[in-house]
Amino acid sequence: MSVKIFPTLKNYKKEYLPKDILSGIIMVAVSIPISMGYAQIAGVPAVYGLYGSVLPILLFAMLSTSKQFIFGVDAAPAAIVGAALATLGVTAESARHCSMYH
């Protein structure tokens, strides 16, 4: 099995590049603060939201054969992460939470 990197760029038209770059900047400006905020709501450091918003998108873009995809964070994943952390005993007041920051 061979894995192709950026298979969707095979027939990419260069004239789309300026608008795609602008679209990417707009998406970053919107999604990164939102994902960092949701991470804090879930009780984890804000940088986890940064990792959760940027890295999966880059991996998907590198490996996907789909030319269209929708991404973004919303309250549902934040609630799921928060609930999972709560079942593990990690709350904003717990020693485990404080050890995450040090």
Structural commentary:
The protein has four helices and no strands. 11% of the residues are buried. It is mostly helical and 102 residues long. The model has no long low-confidence stretch (mean pLDDT 76). The chain has one domain (14-101). Helix content is 62%, strand content 0%. Helix 1 (17-41) packs antiparallel against helix 2. It starts with 16 loop residues before the first helix and ends with a helix.
Could you write a compact summary of the structure shown?
The protein has helices spanning 17-41, 46-63, 75-87, 95-101. With 102 residues, it is an all-alpha fold. The protein has one domain.
Radius of gyration: 17 Å
In this structure, how is the largest beta sheet organized?
Answer: none
Q: How large a portion of the residues is in β-strands, by DSSP E?
A: under 5%
Label the overall shape.
elongated
Distance between the termini: 42 Å
Poorly predicted runs of 5 or more residues? none
What's the tally of helices? Answer: 4
Number of domains: 1
Helix share bin: 55-70%
Class of secondary structure makeup: mainly alpha
Q: How many β-strand stretches?
A: 0
Mean pLDDT: 76
- Helix/strand order, N-terminal first: HHHH
